Every structure is written in structure tokens, then in C-alpha cells.
Amino acid sequence: MTASNPDHARIAAGLVDLLDLRPVDAAGAASSPTAIAVYEGDSSPQPGGHVFGGQVMGQAVTAVGRTVPEGRRIHSMYSYFLAPGDPAHPIRFEVDALRDGGSFSVRRVLATQPGRTEEEGERTILAMTASFQEEQEGLEHAEHAPEAPDPEGLPTTAEVLAGIEHPVAEYWSTQRPIDIRHVTDPIYLRPDANAGTIDAQMVWMRTLAPVDADPLLHDAILAFASDYTPFEPILRKQGLSWMTPGLKMATIDHAIWWHRHVRADEWLLYVQRSPSASGGRGLTHGQIFDRSGELVATVTQEGMIRAPRRG
Predict the structure, then answer these.
(1) Which ranges carry the Acyl-CoA thioesterase-like N-terminal HotDog domain (predicted)?
(2) DSSP string covering 192-206, please?
(3) Model confidence, pTM
(4) Which residues are catalytic?
(5) pLDDT (tens digit, 9 = 90+) per residue, 167-189?
(6) How far apart, in Å, are the Cα atoms of 188 and each of 81, 158, 251?
């Protein structure tokens, strides 16, 4: 397939392979005496030579999920992004068991890579704590999705960026494994026309093609996809776009609560708003709804944002 006609099934299958980690002998590889499992994963090439934070987070979800008793699914996780990843080196995920109770299990995982120098040694690029629960009955209520047009009638990223010659635009158009369609006008190229008055947006998202994966990997894909657009409500409010010269952004921390479990290859509506930006940081709150309008996950992300001085 050519860049203008990418193989969506191959790209989606590649995402599953990326998140499907290799086990490593913990006895010989673990640096912590309390580690119960060690896994290793590779990185997908990105424009600019960095590792996508959502990739490391999704891989970490896979790592911790493979160490809990059968029948327990992730219901919450909190990640700190501590250093940029280097795509030239595999990433190692070392899992500690913090608790196994009658219904819940809690795990901690550190994602590490070799340091840039011998003196630096191993460096931690992400730290995650995650909690799992066996399926149980209980009280039920949920918010419902706001009105939104169907995703099939919205332009794809490739259609929005058609004719733009830029490495990032080409990657988003032809290689990104998540199909993202903006309900609110995209801000890839230019700021929102309502800058200063709007701090919210909605996007539909799913994998580019159906994926054959176990439920844990669908949870990992949701974590992966949740990291693509949280900065955008902040940019909308501030009159910025992804192409603003001198703009620098990096995720500091990212939390997800799974209320219900879904397939990541079915359309999900991601509703996002930014309640605050201060001190070089911006906060985004997101809700993810399934196609029927039921709330399936809540996401909160804080990021570093360095924008050029104005005026």
C-alpha cells in the first residue's frame, strides 16, 4: 500500500502487536526484589524521533493486567510521565504487586530504558499505579452523551490534512492507528475561530480497522487513544493550534477510570474540556461514551504547555 492509500488493517494489527509485550525472566531481569513480573516492548516510529506517551501508557496497562487474578479488569490507573522515551531502545516494564484482596488487586509498574550515559544507568520514563476489580453487581447510574453528529458523516484526518506537506501531517493522515474525527472543527492547522470563548471539544475515535485482541488489549488501546487529543481544549481556549510556532507540550500525568468495558474498535465519543491553565500547565477533563451514549470512562490529564510570548 502507498502512503496515500494505507493498509488500515495492517496498521491496526500493528497497534495490537505494539501493546502485546514480551515476558522477560523476572529472576534475572528485575531490579527490585518485590517485582513479580517483567515485560519488554518496542516503540512505533514517530515524527521527531520521540515515543508517544499513549504508547507507553497502553503498554503499562498490558503489563499490570497480566499479573492479576483471572476475571479482574482494570477500573482505574494513574500515570506520571517522568522522562521522554527513546525509540532506539526497548522499554522494560517491571511490575510490583501492592495488594490482592477479595475483590480488588493493585499493581505498580515502572517503565525504564537505558540512560543516555553509563553514569546515568537505567532511567524511569513512566510510573503507573493501577487497580483491578472482579465483576460485581452494584448501584448503577451514568451521565449520557451530549448530542453529536454520527462519525460516518465527519471528515477523516486524512481528508482534513489533504495536500499538507509536513511529516507530522503525513503521519497523522496515513500511519496513526486511531481514526479520530472531530465534531468541533479541527485545530491541526489554525486556531479555533471562537478562541477565548470555547474550552471544549468532541471527537469520535476507534481503531482504523477491527482488531482481534483479548479484553485487556482493548483496555490498553483505550488508554493509548485517550492521550491523542487532551491538549486541544486548552489550545482552543488560548487561540493556538498544533502548528503554532514555538509551541511545546508534554504530558505530566494522566488518569483514567473505566466505568464499563468496551471494544476499542467500535466508535467512542470523547468529550473534553479544560477547566484551568496556570503556571505553565494545563488541565483537561474528558468523558468517553459508547455509541449508545453510555459513559464508559473518565479521563483527566495535566500537561506542560510552553507557548511563545505574544505581543
Answers:
(1) 47-133
(2) -TTTTT--EEEEEEE
(3) 0.93
(4) 227, 251, 301
(5) 888 888 888 999 999 999 999 98
(6) 24, 11, 18
